[in-house]
Specification:
Length: 357
């Protein structure tokens, strides 16, 4: 199957008619209404995540102890396990959705995902080092090594992509990311093959899971995702200008180098925190921006906002589905997103050409 990319220029306003302002206001109102519907869907799947689990708890009991903890077994399960898990899924989903949208915009590549700059492999390398060389054995212990690995990989990719006198262009970043990813993958494979104990521990992290994470993990991931979110949303106007090319962006007053650096930092914070907290989870950062772009078009302000909400809807829904299908155990969320995301992405590719900004 061949995928083609169309370049869609931003409207210049030259062909706007007298009714154009009214049309734009109507479109903005519809997009705003869609955002509210998406937020309602997020609240619904969040409530389902608190209610549904391997241990059945009636909805009335769930609703009661949700607001008034009473120390019962149901209350402990909901407040110490399901609520932190749901909040972490919210943060991880936001991180993956926004970082995927940023990657596709920065590289102008509709097939880009958060791992394109080596962030995911960097996080995996951090976990491998933590297990094999430092004996770390808990998810909360992995998170700092994973985040440091993601940050180091991101910096290395940007340095390689910006070597010489030229700025880090999208093509150079992609090539540098592919090279760093290949090296890190070889390193991880060598260490894990020589250390069976490390392989046994790593394979449970690398599948991508939200199980066993508590509120401490949420508090660790929260500041990184929050800063990355603010950076991403703040870059939306500049990304709209860069969609028409670097020269046009400079003509509109955008600092191209600064925008790319801040975008790379936002991707590192968002994807690094998400991967460190839950392991590598595929397809969310790849598929969700396409869904958002299909709904609201190429405007980065709306596309980033929709990606920020649609991604946790998909991730929390996949987590709930994994608990239902795998009962009395569960299927890890990384496996469920792969089964849901792959057909969805194929359907999007077959339905229409992949359109970039």
């Amino acid at each position: 199957m061949s995928l083609s990319v169309e370049t869609r220029a931003a409207p210049t306003g030259a062909e706007d008619g007298p009714a154009a302002p009214r049309v734009r206001r109507s479109a903005a109102a519809l997009r705003g209404l869609g955002l509210l519907v998406t937020l309602a869907a997020l609240l619904l799947v969040g409530l389902l995540s608190v209610w549904v689990g391997t241990r059945g708890i009636p909805f009335t009991s769930t609703w009661s102890v949700l607001w008034e903890p009473d120390g019962s077994q149901a209350s402990v399960i909901i407040h110490e396990y399901r609520i932190p898990r749901t909040l972490l899924a919210l943060l991880v989903g936001m991180g993956l959705g926004l970082s995927g949208a940023l990657m596709q915009s920065l590289t102008r590549n509709p097939l880009a995902d958060p791992g394109l700059l080596g962030v995911s492999l960097g996080a995996s390398t951090g976990v491998v080092v933590a297990i094999a060389f430092f004996g770390v054995a808990t998810a909360l212990g992995y998170v700092w090594f994973a985040f440091l690995g993601a940050a180091a990989a991101s910096v290395l990719v940007y340095v390689l992509g910006a070597s010489g006198r030229t700025l880090a262009t999208p093509d150079r970043l992609v090539v540098a990311g592919a090279a760093v990813t290949a090296v890190l993958m070889a390193f991880n494979s060598a260490v894990l093959l020589l250390n069976p104990r490390a392989f046994d521990q790593f394979r449970f992290w690398t599948v991508g899971s939200l199980a066993g994470r508590d509120m401490d993990m949420v508090l660790v991931a929260l500041p990184f995702v929050a800063v990355g979110l603010l950076l991403a949303l703040g870059l939306a106007p500049s990304l709209n200008a860069l969609a028409m090319g670097d020269q046009m962006g400079r003509a509109l007053g955008v600092n191209v180098g600064r925008t790319r650096v801040l975008g790379a930092v936002a991707v590192m914070l968002l994807c690094g925190a998400a991967t460190a907290a839950a392991g590598p989870i595929g397809f969310v950062g790849l598929v969700v921006p396409h869904i958002a772009r299909f709904v609201v078009g190429p405007d980065q302000r709306w596309m980033l906002a929709y990606s920020m909400l649609l991604a946790p809807v998909l991730l929390i829904g996949a987590d709930v589905l994994g608990r239902v299908l795998g009962s009395p155990g569960e299927i890890q969320v990384g496996i469920v997103t792969a089964f849901l995301g792959a057909p969805l992405f194929i359907a999007l590719c077959r339905r229409r050409k992949l359109v970039m900004l």
